[in-house]
Amino acid sequence: MEEKLKELFESYTGQKLVETHELRSSGSNRRYFRLSGGNVTVVGVLGTSHAENHAFIELSRHFKEKQLHVPTVLAVSEDGMAYIQEDLGDKVLYDLVAQGRESGEYSSYECGLLCKTMEMLPRFQFK
């Protein structure tokens, strides 16, 4: 299955895949990998459900059309079980507010991040 990601990466980027690093998953059966080669880095995704992958890809495209900040899906395997998407980096809100979550007292920085996130959610709902 990981061979599909290699093929997608090399076909899309024109670069040889040099490094693959598995990322922690985030509440789904999909497996995420940071793929790099040459000066290109993307996130590769392997799914276990065609329907779930299809839904994610279509929602991502829809959100992008509405100018919402989501990673762009760059290429999808013929069977729809693997795809590569834009790499937005390693920062995850859950980790960024860990101190406040654990102590029960959020810093002004953490409150700002949470407020900004809450302000964005209605855009996803209504756009």
Short structural summary:
This protein has five helices and five strands, in the order αβββαββααα. The protein has 127 residues and is α+β, with helices and mostly antiparallel strands.
Itemize the secondary structure elements and their pairings.
Blueprint: H1 2-13, E1 19-23, E2 31-37, E3 40-46, H2 50-65, E4 73-76, E5 82-86, H3 93-96, H4 98-103, H5 108-126
Protein model, in words:
The protein has a five-stranded antiparallel beta sheet, sandwiched between helices. The radius of gyration is 17 Å and the shape is globular. It has two domains: 2-88, Phosphorylase Kinase, domain 1, CATH 3.30.200; 91-127, no CATH class. Helices cover 45% and strands 22% of the residues. It has helices at 2-13, 50-65, 93-96, 98-103, 108-126, and strands at 19-23, 31-37, 40-46, 73-76, 82-86. It is built from five helices and five strands.
